[in-house]
Amino acid sequence: MSNRQYLSALCAFVGVFFIWSAIAPHDYFTWFLEVFPVLIALPLLLLTQRRFPLTNLVYGLIALHMVILLIGGHYTYAEMPVFNWLRDYYSWDRNYYDRVGHVAQGFVPAMLAREILLRTSPLKPGKWLFFIVVSVCLAISAFYEFIEWWVALASGSDAVAFLATQGDIWDTQWDMFLAFTGAVSAQLLLAKTHLRQMRQMHL
After folding, report:
1. CA-CA distance, 72 to 93, in Å (whole number)?
2. Which end of the chain is least crowded, N or C, by CB within 10 Å?
């Protein structure tokens, strides 16, 4: 399967989830806030596909992240049914679907940042690349927390579902820590596969 065919298949996959997500979500204000990154990222990926095609690995991870966001937008992160069941079955103190989302917020951008840096900067695989990628992901995570704060200030109680703190006073710190672990894990687990795909693209 060519890169373009693979991207088309992923777009169709995400499109199905997008349509489902938009049908009778928990509330449309929260839905829009949660899926807004998808509305920005998907057109950008399509516009840059010819000029700056990414590896299939990165495209696949981005599609998975989009699905996580679309599911969170439909149910809200505090009311995702599967994680409600897990909460009740294991007597957890909260719905942990938002934790999955924040791991993805580090894991997926790490591979995207890694590819962009390797292809557009003098950086080579190694400690400095690893450190800078993690730093980029932490910056993204922190900025997203700023956005949540600004939305909460602007809209008041309407942003409760978007914040999804579920009464945890350390929720912001947990979010950034999980993005950090996601960024570290992605590079440790996928660096070799990523480099192999990049070499194959540019043979």
Report:
1. 19
2. C
